[in-house]
TrEMBL record:
Residue ranges the record marks as coiled coil: none
Native source organism of the sequence: Desulfosalsimonas propionicica
Name assigned to this protein: Type IV pilus assembly protein PilO
InterPro entries per record: PilO, Transl_elong_EF1B/ribsomal_bS6
BP GO annotations: type IV pilus assembly; type IV pilus-dependent motility
Cited Pfam families: PilO
Regions that span the bilayer: 27-47
The entry's keywords: Membrane, Transmembrane, Transmembrane helix
Amino acid sequence: MKKKSIPREGMEPLFRKISELTRMQRIATCVGVVVVLVGLCGYFLFLPKYQRINDLREDIKSAEQELEITKAKAARYPAVKKEHEAAQASFELAARALPDKEEIPSLLTGISQAGKASGLKFLLFAPQKENVKDFYAEIPVKMELSGGYHDLGAFYDRLARISRIVNVSDFSVSSDSGGPLRISCTAVTYKFIDQPAEKDANQKKKKR
């Protein structure tokens, strides 16, 4: 197969124009051609690689930042674990101070006996509806009693000695001239709610 050759006649005008250029013009033309070739090589060959290098640098920077965050979390792990253990211990301590459902009747009986043992007379002892919170329920008991100041002080002292939590609120005192004190208050005790057990019971009821 014969190679096609460029006709010499077609190249002569170009050679003639080049020969007519001065030396400085030829040098400038050569420099311009070299600059264009270098620019094209840089654009098509080096620029994509340069962009790839920048992308890799950004990836490395992002990975280093994530590594620093992970290191910071790892450094805080012992402290977080200690805080969790302390919170768990506090929760267990509070749970032990809250009676179970089965203990509530005896606890209410204990409050009533504390009042009678202190010399107070119960005019009203009415447990109210439970107020359910997160993992416990409040059990308010409205009370009206009559007696003397010393009897009232002894009653509060006995309540404070009960191993379970009992708070007294809505306290008011009135008295007739020369008569015993009439005390009105609400004693609030608490019980622990075993939520998982209650959920299982509800699920069993639904299945039935």
